[in-house]
Task: structure prediction
Amino acid sequence: MQARNTGRGDGDRDEHDEFDAFYAESVGRLTGQLYAMTGDLAEAQDVVQEAFARAWEHRSELDLDGAPEAWVRTVAWRLAVSRWRKVRTALAFARRQGPPAVAPPPEPHHVLLVQALRQIPEAHRRAVVLHHLCDLSVEQVAAEAGCAVGTVKAHLSRGRAALARLLADTELDPGRSHLSEERHG
Result:
């Protein structure tokens, strides 16, 4: 696209229309060419779109009567190569780090607690987790949740009551060991 009048008016509209026509005419062809070069359609689509975005930024310097497709194709290819290098570098880093440490399985009481938390309303669950697991004060929970302190207190009370019902007769029930001793004693 040759440099045009940069003032507002028909020159800008013509420049936009001309670029739109260039895009519509060549995007499919360029995507096909980059797909053939990269072997990955999604990657080809991504780099061609990014190359067109860059072409749009440089449209006043881009000569549409010359070889604008070559410019876009070259930029798209360089983007693809750059992405490959980043992936290769990341993989090399991951290989140097070795395999991840083996994570132990979750404790049974943790599984029970998570299952119970999933069964209570989201607002109650959030309040309980923020207050008891994140050690936030009621005021801090209210600020983070964007609600009144009284609302947090209600959520905590209802959440704890629901959890007590859900965890009754499990290993997380504080009264369970006492009741078990009485039954067996």
Q: What stands out?
A: The radius of gyration is 31 Å.
